[in-house]
C-alpha cells in the first residue's frame, strides 16, 4: 500500500476517535534499533511553539518510557479496526519480556525521518522527535483525577513530540469510516 504525505491535521478527528476506541500504537526503539510497541489511549495533536506536536502520556513503569528516554523519538500509528486484538495485546504485556511485534503479527517498516519504525498494518503514521517533556505535578491535579487514575502513583511523563513526518494509506478514509462504539469507550491510560 502506498503511503502518501498528509498535513498533520488531515486526520485529526479520525486519530482521536480511534484512540478513544481501541487505542493507537506508540513505537519506540533502543539505540541499537530494536523496536517496542505499546498501546496508548491518551494524547492529542496540536500546534505549540509554531510546530506540529503530538503529545503522548507515558507512565514511568512502562518499558516504552525507558526507550523514549534512550532515543528521544517515537512514532504514533493509527490502527484499522481489524487490529483490535493486537491493540489489546500491546496494551497488556511489556516489551521487557515480550516481542510484541512478533506475537501480534505486526510488521516493522523503517520510518522516513526517525529511528523507531512504523507499524505497516496501520493506516496513518506520525513520526515524532521529542522537543520537550514534563512530569505531571501530583499536587496540581484535581483530587478526582488523582483518585481515579493514580492510586498507585506512577504519574505520567508528558512527551511533546514534534511531528516531522505524517503520512497515510490512500484508502485510510474508507478503512477508518466512523462506526459508533458499541459500549463505553476505554479509559485506560
Ligand atoms: C486501550 C489502552 C490504552 C492505554 N493507554 C496508555 C497510555 O496512554 N499511557 C500509558 O503509559 N499506558 C497506556 N496503556 C498501558 C500500556 O499500553 C501497557 O502498560 C503496556 O503493556 C506497556 O508496554 P511496555 O512495557 O512494552 O511499554 C494503555 C493500555 C490500553 C489497553
Brief overview:
This protein has 189 residues and is of the alpha+beta class. Helix content is 21%, strand content 34%.
Describe what you observe in this structure.
The protein is built from 6 helices and 10 strands. The protein is of the alpha+beta class. It has one domain (3-175): Pnp Oxidase, Chain A. A hairpin with a 2-residue loop joins strand 4 and strand 5. The strands form 2 sheets. Strands 1, 2, 3, 4, 5, 6, 9 and 10 form an 8-stranded antiparallel beta sheet that branches. Bound molecules: flavin mononucleotide. Flavin mononucleotide binds at residues 23, 36, 38-42, 57-59, 62-64, 91-96, 186, 188-189.
Relative strand content: 25-35%
CATH architecture: Roll
H/I helix tally: 6
Total count of domains: 1
Q: What composes the largest sheet?
A: 8 strands, antiparallel
What is the CATH class designation? Answer: Mainly Beta
Number of strands: 10
Taken in chain order, the helices and strands follow as EHEEEEHEHHEEEHEH
Reported by name, the CATH topology is Pnp Oxidase, Chain A
Q: Gyration radius, to the nearest Å?
A: 16 Å
Low-confidence stretches at least 5 residues in length (pLDDT < 50)? none
Percent range of helical residues: 10-25%
Average per-residue pLDDT, rounded, comes to 95
Q: Which geometry do the CA atoms define?
A: globular
Briefly note the structural class of the backbone: alpha+beta
